[in-house]
Automatic annotation (TrEMBL):
InterPro entries associated with the record: CoA_trans_fam_I (IPR004165), NagB/RpiA_transferase-like (IPR037171)
Gene3D superfamilies with a match to the protein in the record: Glutaconate Coenzyme A-transferase
SMART domains for the chain: CoA_trans
Family named by the database record: Belongs to the 3-oxoacid CoA-transferase subunit B family.
Pfam family, one: CoA_trans
Name of the featured protein: CoA-transferase subunit beta
Length: 238
């Protein structure tokens, strides 16, 4: 059975929460949300899912508990939450920008704003999802630091960037200087394609593996239970 690029992306996002235990999964975006739900249904059953406001919910959206704001902040600042955010720009050390493109005094484009990115990145693990990998997103230097990268996080106890997932592959920071490394390619993508779409020199090993395929059960869950309407295919097109 063939697997689409979007389904590899769901699997790659789900893997960000593997072995996390009882932490609050905070996926921002469609594919990350599908990934978190898949992780909870399979290899990370202890994950806590939220409605995005004040409730803990089950896999079907049924309310299972109340999450008061002070309890939420305790989880955030104590490393008990794992967020998967987007990125308007991201650099080799994982610094992320969601605020503006261009000079702060006169930006070329207004984005979301800094929002909670500094607190998220300094106080709990944060992964990233980029649906369209390009040199405009993967840049040598972000125009403004919102999410804090490894070169700026000295002394931050819970700072960690487990992975960056794009429509081309999976990236991590498992290098001596904590610069970004190509961890896996989605099937059908070539190393040179990733290199050309990245605005800095990635660490690339000699034998880059492919992103793992979903099992038959995982594929069934994605297609029949988690996303029966096929919304994933609208976000990622090979």
């Amino acid at each position: 059975m063939s697997v689409s690029r979007s389904e590899y992306c769901v699997i790659a996002c789900a893997e960000a929460w593997r072995d996390n235990g009882e932490v609050l999964a905070s996926p921002m975006g469609l594919i990350p949300s599908f990934g978190a739900r898949l992780a909870k249904r399979t290899f990370s059953p202890d994950l806590l899912l939220t409605d995005g406001e004040a409730m803990l919910v089950g896999l079907d959206g049924t309310v299972e508990g109340w999450l008061p704001y002070r309890r939420h902040l305790t989880m955030v600042t104590g490393g008990r939450r794992h967020v998967m955010m987007g990125a308007g720009q991201i650099d080799r050390f994982g610094n992320q920008n969601i605020s503006c493109v261009g000079d702060w005094e006169r930006p070329k484009r207004q984005l979301l704003g800094v929002r909670g990115a500094p607190v998220n990145t300094l106080n709990n693990p944060v992964s990233y999802w980029v649906p369209k990998h390009s040199a405009r997103v993967f840049v040598e230097r972000v125009d403004m630091v919102c999410g804090v990268g490894y070169d700026r996080a000295a002394g931050a106890r819970y700072h960690r960037i487990p992975r960056v997932v794009s429509d081309l592959g999976v990236f991590d920071f498992a290098t001596p200087d904590r610069s970004m490394r190509l961890a896996s390619l989605h099937p059908g993508v070539a190393v040179e394609q990733v290199r050309e779409a990245t605005g800095f020199n990635l660490v690339i090993g000699g034998d880059v593996p492919y992103t793992r395929e979903p099992s038959a059960d995982e594929l069934r869950l994605i297609r029949a239970v988690i996303d029966p309407e096929g919304l994933r295919e609208r976000e990622v097109k090979a």
